[in-house]
Q: What sequence folds into this?
């Protein structure tokens, strides 16, 4: 063989990664020996000596085999790397040419991949923002929140804000913390240029800006003298939002002295836009805490190297010591710390897992669809496969080329998916916990390097998986069968099984998605339509704050509440007015630890029973339409100097007196030795579906406990006689100002609106999952259609023979429909089994909906069955229109 031809053969075999056995390619061995001699000459060996050495080594067959193997393998690593890189470039160029040659296939496949990868990447951006991306106030991940907790009867921890005594104990742990700050929430009615503004004001202990690492954007932080002065400092740092809303973004801070609840404050700084930490704050002021102060949010920065489990062990020991020192107020309470991220994430883990699982299922369906498209596409290239094999291209090399084409396709789809993710990221802010946009200024889902790496990795992994599945069958082609077919591709039984398996997987995953979406939608509907135990329709609510110094006396507070409620009740269109310290369906919670007269006292190591604590005015129950079950509700006579009355809900009565009436029983706040007075139960009302974390509720007359810490503010409830309750807001505001011109009315909303806000995140999550389920259903239907259409195209000759032999149209229809029915039935069976397991992941997100919901599964299965049936229509019509004569000639 001429050397040029031998070199061509060597290059061709190198191109396809193929090496023939030594004993079968003597010409190649001779060429190799000559090249070896030339190489020895280049290294300085005389020509005669080089050829003698090669001739000597050629005499030994084993030595020749070793030389050949070394040259073909790792003998020349640089050459091997260049060869591998050249093959990769060749595969990529060839892949681009194949995509250009079939633009329709490329478009459909890229859109499918882009939707799946884009949804995954966008949602991972949400997960990244919640769980991985450094928080603006905690870039090093060393910020923790320290809270007290009690154990419920079922063993669950109920977290509560800490007391001053706990704060002092944490301050003493200097070996664990390098900075500790306590925050407490309050409100001020600020008289600004635009009128009275209610502001959420946070009272802070020294060191706020050094703790969070965020300084005012304008002005300065508090001085050491101001922090030591505490409440007497008279200075404020305000939020950018309040600065814009109440002061018109005035740059002259010296001119921003404001009056708040009768006190003068100097504004010394403005925080950056979007920062409202904690509690969606509008302003911050130095604080002085009383020894009995409760409801402190303690945030601390741990020292480098401090381990959270070890820290919690020390906090538990500190909590036990506090129990012994202050049994009246801290008995049964423990101390523990959680990361700032966990405190801010607001228990978003289950919903994030459900959403990521949903988009993961959608991606799997998309990958199955793409794998099926590629399998059919590679199957029609069988002639190309066998020609390459005949030229010496091994199966591994063919697999590598097909997989490279597939990965290229997924990388292009992933790039398009990034565009989809960028387009979706702002809309997905709705899935963030409210605390992140409200307190951290996170108004979008940032796509940082983690998101890009996730998208790239996911693209490569999906491309490899889909490419291997599709190419594994395509690279196994029988030379004689393909060549006898004259170029017509014929899908093997194994290929049809692979395609059928992909369709089964698609249907099963789509069923899981549809079932999960059905459960989430039903749960949200239950939340929206659940019986609250009160009539929300036609009810308006707003808040007022009584923190002005002139309301420090109890009788002054009661007089103001009586006058304001009386003026509102006299307005046209108002049918009832009442007030409570806590709105039962939103806006925070307040608990009371109690003891029951005549029942065993709790042991020092045991927590007291804790219930919802509410102060209400006499007409509260009638305005809310909470039914009276036994006894009476409060009257205007239930005020200071009269018998201390108490109303409890039905759950309270049932828990402590299951077999007798609760009327006349006595209850007190705190333990048996608490100085709090005994309260006598005068009535039992219906249970309200309270949003707080406790189960039972007690109600106290506002007029008997106006100076209770929970009495600093009130939620006023106004029932409209007819029409939209919001239409009453202007007249109600005038009535409130008539009662006190310094009193600000804020957060006005209907109870129906608040009810919808409560489930807003769940509703968004359910909507997203439903959209993903719809996309999954569409992809599954497309998959069934694609398989049947391919099968009809491959079996054209077979169908023509059947028709020519007398097969009826009904038989042809039965043949195609049976295949679709069999695949659908198997897919539904597998999907039901997976759905039962996957639904358990949604358990924490579901309300009044069982995880094994036969109705949800039946609806999802029916939708898939109908979709699969619809997918068979076009292939059946195509089969019935086949001309037997033309198909046999083909």
A:
């Amino acid at each position: 063989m001429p050397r040029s031809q031998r070199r061509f053969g060597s290059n061709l075999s190198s191109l396809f990664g193929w090496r023939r056995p030594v004993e079968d390619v003597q010409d190649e061995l001779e060429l190799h020996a000559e090249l070896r001699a030339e190489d020895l000459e280049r290294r300085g060996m005389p020509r005669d000596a080089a050829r003698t050495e090669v001739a000597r080594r050629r005499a030994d067959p084993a030595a020749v085999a070793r030389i050949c193997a070394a040259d073909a393998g790792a003998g020349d690593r640089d050459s091997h790397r260049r060869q591998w890189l050249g093959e990769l470039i060749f595969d990529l160029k060839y892949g681009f040419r194949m995509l250009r040659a079939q633009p329709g296939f490329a478009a459909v496949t890229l859109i499918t991949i882009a939707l799946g990868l884009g949804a995954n990447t966008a949602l991972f951006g949400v997960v990244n923002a919640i769980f991985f991306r450094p928080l603006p106030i905690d870039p090093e991940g060393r910020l923790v929140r320290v809270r007290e907790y009690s154990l419920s009867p079922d063993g669950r921890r109920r977290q509560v804000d800490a007391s001053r005594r706990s704060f002092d104990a944490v301050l003493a742990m200097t070996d664990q913390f390098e900075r500790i700050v306590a925050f407490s929430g309050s409100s001020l009615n600020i008289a600004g240029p635009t009128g009275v503004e209610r502001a959420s004001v946070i009272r802070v202990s020294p060191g706020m800006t050094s703790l969070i690492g965020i300084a005012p954007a304008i002005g300065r932080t508090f001085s050491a003298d101001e922090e030591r002065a505490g409440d007497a400092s008279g200075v404020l740092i305000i939020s950018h939002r309040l600065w814009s809303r109440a002061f018109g973004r005035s740059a002259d801070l010296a001119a921003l002295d404001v009056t708040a609840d009768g006190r003068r404050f100097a504004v010394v700084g403005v925080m950056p836009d979007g920062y409202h930490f904690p509690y969606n704050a509008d302003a911050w002021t130095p604080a002085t805490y009383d020894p009995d102060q409760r409801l402190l949010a303690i945030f601390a920065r741990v020292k480098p190297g401090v381990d959270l489990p070890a820290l919690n062990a020390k906090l538990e020991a500190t909590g036990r010591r506090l129990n012994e020192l202050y049994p009246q107020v801290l008995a049964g309470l423990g101390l523990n710390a959680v990361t700032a991220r966990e405190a801010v994430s607001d228990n978003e883990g289950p919903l994030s897992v459900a959403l990521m699982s949903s988009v993961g299922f959608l991606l799997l369906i998309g990958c199955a669809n793409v794998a099926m498209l590629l399998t059919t596409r590679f199957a029609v290239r069988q002639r190309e496969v066998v020609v390459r094999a005949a030229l010496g291209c091994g199966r591994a090399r063919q697999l590598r080329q097909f997989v490279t084409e597939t990965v290229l396709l997924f990388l292009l789809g992933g790039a398009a998916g990034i565009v989809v993710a960028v387009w979706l990221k702002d809309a997905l802010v709705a899935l963030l916990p409210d605390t992140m946009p409200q307190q951290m200024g996170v108004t979008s889902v940032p796509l940082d390097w983690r998101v890009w790496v996730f998208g790239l990795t996911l693209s490569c992994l999906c491309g490899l998986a889909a490419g291997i599945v599709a190419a594994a069958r395509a690279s196994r082609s029988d030379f004689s069968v393909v060549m006898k077919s004259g170029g017509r591709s014929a899908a093997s039984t194994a290929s049809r099984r692979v395609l059928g398996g992909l369709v089964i997987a698609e249907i099963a995953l789509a069923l899981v998605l549809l079932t999960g979406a059905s459960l989430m939608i039903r749960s949200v509907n239950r939340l929206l339509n659940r019986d609250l135990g009160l009539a929300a329709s036609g009810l308006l609510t707003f808040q007022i704050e009584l923190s002005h110094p002139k309301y420090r006396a109890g009788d002054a507070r009661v007089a103001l509440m009586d006058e304001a409620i009386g003026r509102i009740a006299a307005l046209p269109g108002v049918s009832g007015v009442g007030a409570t310290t806590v709105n039962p369906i939103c806006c925070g919670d307040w608990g009371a630890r109690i003891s029951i007269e005549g029942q065993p006292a709790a042991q020092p190591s045991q927590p007291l029973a804790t219930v919802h604590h509410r102060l209400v005015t006499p007409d509260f129950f009638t305005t809310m339409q909470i039914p009276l079950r036994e006894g009476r509700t409060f009257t205007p006579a239930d005020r200071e100097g009269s018998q201390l009355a108490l109303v409890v809900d039905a759950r309270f009565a049932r828990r402590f007196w299951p077999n007798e009436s609760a009327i006349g029983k006595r209850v007190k706040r705190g333990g048996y030795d608490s100085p709090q007075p005994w309260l006598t139960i005068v009535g039992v009302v219906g249970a309200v579906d309270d949003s707080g974390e406790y189960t039972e509720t007690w109600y106290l007359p506002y007029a008997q406990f106006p100076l209770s810490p929970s009495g600093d503010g009130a939620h006023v409830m106004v029932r409209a006689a007819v029409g939209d309750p919001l239409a009453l807001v202007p007249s109600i505001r005038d009535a409130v100002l008539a009662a006190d011109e310094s009193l600000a009315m804020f957060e006005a909303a209907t109870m129906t609106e608040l009810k919808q806000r409560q489930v807003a995140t769940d509703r968004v999550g359910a909507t997203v999952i439903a959209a993903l389920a719809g996309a999954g259903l569409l992809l599954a239907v497309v998959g069934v259609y694609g398989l049947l259409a391919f099968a009809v195209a491959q079996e054209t000759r077979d169908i023509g023979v059947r028709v020519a032999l007398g097969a009826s149209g009904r038989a042809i229809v039965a043949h195609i429909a049976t295949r679709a029915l069999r695949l659908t039935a198997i897919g539904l069976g597998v999907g039901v089994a997976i759905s039962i397991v996957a639904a358990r992941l949604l358990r924490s997100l579901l309300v009044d909906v069982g995880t094994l919901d036969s109705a949800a599964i039946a609806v999802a299965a029916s939708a898939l069955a109908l979709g699969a049936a619809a997918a068979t229509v076009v292939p059946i019509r195509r089969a019935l229109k086949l001309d037997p004569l033309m198909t046999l000639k083909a």
The chain has a mean pLDDT of 77. The first helix runs from residue 3 to 15. Residues 70 and 76 are 8 Å apart (CA to CA). The first strand starts at residue 143 and ends at 151.
